[in-house]
Amino acid sequence: PAGSQDRRGYWHPCRRLADRANPLCHGPMGFRIGSKTPKVNRMTVNMPTFRQRLRTLGRAWRAGLVTEVVLRSAGLLAVAVAVFGLLDYFLGFSERELGWILAFMAVGTGATFLAWIGRVVRLTDDATARRVDLLLESRRQDTLSALELDRVLERTTGLSDLHIYLSRRGVERSRAALAGVSRIKALPLATLRARLKITFLQVGIAAL
Questions:
Q1: What is the DSSP string of 71-110?
Q2: What is the pLDDT of residues 149-163, one digit of tens each?
Q3: Other C-beta atoms within 10 Å of 145: how many?
Q4: 107 Rama class: left (phi>0) / alpha (psi -120 to 50) / beta
């Protein structure tokens, strides 16, 4: 018969070039002789890929960083208002001078805020992979290595079957590790807590 059978007992009707006309080639590429077509595991099909999971964690991380930037900007604005109030109390600025100073403060605070936000927006998948490796305490940077392997599989052609198999195995191992990292864990909670305390202190001092 057309096709061939491997060591595991699976029938491969399309293994040979001459068998491509076989109607079985339009179905599953491997199944046991005499058995029904295997059912598709929808949970496996709907499972996010390594890159999708990494970017999900990256969005959570960047959301936390944006929150930290907002808190930092609020603290900076509170300090600037406090300094402005002290200078106005001792020097007594005119209305024109007050307008220029307020405009300078607004422009400076806005420019600083945009610069901080720009750093967060420019974070790449590589930065996210390093962040995940820190969370997983991976000294070998397995997530970053898996990201590089995934890129090689996506962009490079002509790889050997062994190279493809080993690369996919490494990527799948890292994907399974990423599944254990929640979005909450990806947030920079320690940085947010520290920034929140500093901001409250700055606002409290400015209100005195």
A1: HHHHHHHHHHHHHHHHHHHHH---HHHHHHHHHHHHHHHH
A2: 999 998 888 888 899
A3: 16
A4: alpha
